[in-house]
Design a protein that fits this description.
- With about 130 residues, this protein is mainly α.
- The chain is built from 5 helices and no strands.
Length: about 130
């Protein structure tokens, strides 16, 4: 669905874009949990989002074939570092809305695409 029907779609992305989509998938999921399920997680619960993001990455790593073949402990650390880089758009310390994703990617379907990735990682929808 929406180019995400295969678990390995991240494999075809350049490394930095794969990192960005993983990070923004997490950010979109936290927004959806807040808006639709009234769950205050990470920045929405005024807590450090890093431990929540690490659990998210643990789940992603547990899904066979989901992450690119180049993914390893070093690449994970790089993704974690990029997720908190203050001058980067994909920062887990900043909240995000559907319209932000649409504008940033210039793609009205990108929020749905990130949501589908999130469902593959979490194994369920957000509610």
């Amino acid at each position: 669905m929406f180019g995400r029907s295969y678990d390995n779609y991240l494999h075809a992305l350049p490394e930095k874009e794969a990192f960005a989509q993983i990070i923004n998938c997490f950010r979109m999921r936290m927004e959806d949990e807040y808006v639709f399920a009234q769950k205050n997680i990470g920045v929405y619960g005024e807590e450090d989002p890093v431990p929540v993001f690490r659990r998210f990455l643990n789940l992603a790593e547990s899904r066979p074939g989901l992450l690119p073949p180049w993914w390893n402990a070093q690449k994970r650390r790089e993704c974690e570092r990029l997720s908190v880089k203050s001058n980067d758009w994909s920062n887990i310390h900043c909240t995000i809305e559907k319209s932000d994703i649409q504008e940033h990617y210039n793609n009205n379907m990108m929020p749905m695409m990130l949501r589908v990735l999130g469902e593959k990682i979490y194994g369920r929808g957000f509610v």
